[in-house]
């Protein structure tokens, strides 16, 4: 099995970091766009999609800056992360997603993220 590699996606967002962070770091916010059902208990999030379930532990987070998750089934050094950055030039809020995938799967995984983020933007009124 080939080793997965880290890739990064960036999406400009028209909303405040405070509002965006709530959609990225709370079970109610994530349930709006990321999964059908999301529960959070002591830093472990349970996600459900069409009857399948997965859990992820929060590895690290900083309010209105980023949250990093680790899927329970993934190797220890892999994670997915939502970060919020500000463009110094335009002062625009940017959602940065970091995730791992095998090289040949990065394009498909990126398209999946694009679809998810489109749903998030719809919820945010973007």
UniProtKB/TrEMBL annotation:
Residues 1-125 form the START-like domain. This is START-like domain-containing protein. It comes from Flavisolibacter ginsengisoli DSM 18119. InterPro entries: START-like_dom_sf, START_2. SUPFAM superfamilies: Bet v1-like (SSF55961). It holds the Pfam family START_2. It comes from the Bacteria. Coiled coil: none annotated.
